[in-house]
Amino acid sequence: MRGKGYFSRLGPGIVSGAADDDPSGIATYSQIGAATGFRLLWGVVFLLPLAYAVQEACARLAIVTGQGLAGVIRTRLPRPVLYISVLLVAVANTVNIAADLASMAAAFNLIVPVPQLVGVIAFALIILLLEIFIPYHRYAKILRWLCLSLVAYVAVLFVVQVPWGEAGMSVIVPRFDWTKADISLLIAMAGTTISPYLFFWQSAEEVESRTATGNVKVSKNHIRAMRGDVGAGMIATVVVAGSILITAAATLHAHDITNIQTAEQAAQALAPIAGPYASLLFLLGIVGTGLLTVPVLAGATSYAMAETFGWSESLEKKPLQARAFYAVIMASILIGLGLNLGGVDAIQFLLIAAVINGLTAPFLLAVIWWLGRDRKLLGRWRSRWWSQWLVGLATVAMTTLPLLWLLAP
User: By the 8 A CB rule, do 41 and 246 touch?
Assistant: First the structure.
């Protein structure tokens, strides 16, 4: 974790945190703020320790075992559990890729009026070429500068009238309406913050980092550095997520825009600080996070498949050195492109992707909780009691929400 400045070294936790604020996250938190105002703001605070504990557990498994999450599942659990886990993450990731590509094209259309499908194809090809021919860690550092446009959501809070008393009470006193609409938004919120693809990506990148540095010996300092890395990433993503929700509540909801249907409506939340350049700022945020996240989504699927079937794997290898690994990446992005032929509205597509993540996560969280407690696997480095409780709470919460949805009017 040494380095001169924030951008000198992107740890796996930092990159995971940046990828968590993807187009799906931007759209989901914007929609929640527009639809409910501050009423569901408590969810952001509630999810922070849960997201941290889950990512910390995934990183711990990788650091101690030297394997990614799918590799650990393959070693310690029955094969059906492995296949179900990989299938769930592959489906969720592919839908997320499709939604992110759609949103990037829609945001680009705000500035350059090109057909939606043309934009989707262009971004898919750009991402494929970048991921295949340029090591991810190199262009990720550049893309992080584009993602700084998300700070605009924080800046808006200083120029619009935010009823901080109401916002604060929404955090202190949790409440939601007993309706399918509110519970769907909570599922989407949880799914876009505690996302299945990040479980596999976090562990895979910890293994990559372990290999690159040659540091295979586990120590307290190593675990402490990992916790700091994961903590920084999760805090950053939740602060930005909360800012997006508050911004949408204070701008869109306050002006009776309660259902975001288009990218243009979503961009209006930035108008108080960017004025006529709101669409451009929104474009930078969506495209920057999309270019950063789609490779993570495709890469997470590919790492999981490679560990399942014993393929050569690494984003640092050339395509000819890991053909099956890169074939899965290409297939994930191309299938995501194909899903856009259905003509689903880009912003609604993003919300659907978040809900699918929320429905997929409980099974995978239960697997992570079980593995984190495995003394035979982790020995003295198994997850601490607080981690087990938080991961368990995340599992219960994300399992309960779909059941509540079924019961709600």
Answer: yes
Distance between the two ends of the chain, CA-based, in angstroms?
A: 50
What's the mean per-residue pLDDT of the chain?
85
Closest by Cα among 34, 338, 63, 54 to 197: 54
Mean pLDDT of 356-371: 94
Number of domains in the chain: 1
Tell me the residue range of the domain where 307 lies. Answer: 12-407
Q: Among candidates 318, 335, 334, 337, which has minimal Cα distance to 326?
A: 318
CATH of the domain at 20: 1.20.1740.10
Q: For 38-63, what is each residue's pLDDT tens digit?
A: 999 999 999 999 999 999 999 999 98
Tell me the average pLDDT across 183-207. Answer: 88
Amino acid identity for residue 274 in this structure: A
Query: Which residue is it, tokens 């003295």?
Result: 380
Domain-embedded: residue 1: no
**CA-CA distances (angstroms) from residue 59 to 201, 206, 325, 396?**
9, 6, 21, 21
Q: Is residue 168 part of a domain?
A: yes
